[in-house]
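_Full entry_
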Amino acid sequence: MREHPILFSAPMIIAIQEERKTVTRRTSERWDKVQPGDLLWAKETFAIVGEGAPDAYPEMHYRADGKSREFSVPSNHSDLVDNHFPYPGPWKPSIFMPRAHSRITLEVVSVRKERLQEITESEAELEGFAPTPESSAVGNFATLWAKLNAKTHPWDSNPLVRRIEFRRVG
């Protein structure tokens, strides 16, 4: 069993929390290494409030749902906060979230390769999308895909993806 970081947008974090999302599709070949039983730890947009404040522990805030939690820095790692968060700022991109602050852990159930446009309505729903009066679940999935991947893997190119099914374990 190995652990792998995985980036999720705010709407997908909410869908995981609400147990509407149990599948993700990824294009990078690095996902070929992921196997059933591996763990994925979610990286999401966050902020730290109270860094360096005397007599106070910093709080981690999560942009997706606005929740927060207090955390402490181990005494033998008093420089941990500065090493991981070298710049001040309200929201930090998910790519910079360290493992210790991830609040969602997923266990991989299955992995398979398929073409992006093979996604069905029921599969789009497993991705956390619902149909609306304006669009199908697949259409809503395609809209977010285009927003996140237009430059590198546009919808129309029908890239090969890894379909990763997971269950939340933490």
